[in-house]
Fold this sequence. Notes:
With 158 residues, the chain is mainly alpha-helical. The chain has a domain at 1-78. Helices cover 72% and strands 0% of the residues. It is built from seven helices and no strands. The protein has helices at residues 6-24, 30-41, 52-73, 85-91, 95-115, 120-127, 133-157. The protein is globular, with a radius of gyration of 18 Å.
Amino acid sequence: MDHWPFYLGGAALGGVALLHWLVAGRLMSVSSRFSALVDRLRGVRPESSETSLEHLAFFGGLILGGLVASLLAGTFAPTLFDLGPGFRRLFGDDPVLTGAIVTFGGVLVGFGTRMATGCTSGHGLCGVARFERGSLLATCAFFGSGVLASFLFEAVLS
């Protein structure tokens, strides 16, 4: 699989965040959009003036963009819980256990996103670009945790 060089990928991510700011007039924050949709389902009055349709269009664009990119790269291969050989070596092939682990991981990500008052796209792309201290700290925590987890998994899987 061919990947873009890091400098093009970084520029593209920054460009997407900037384009979103110019078109929508707000930061590209996935977690706040998701929270707004969940709040509306719960009957909580939204803080933003954006409609549910605007939030759904944003998420549709994320899905469509990923689909188009994978089709253009020739890597489109939908699977259910195919998390790689390392995951299978640790947890086996049981789809119920895999589903439970993936769900638990999603809950942890949601909890962390609420605790950090934002997600990786909000903090890492938008907050760091504006030199916000909280975003700098949160992004260091994201990356530090990822590096630590990769070392731990490498040690367990070797």
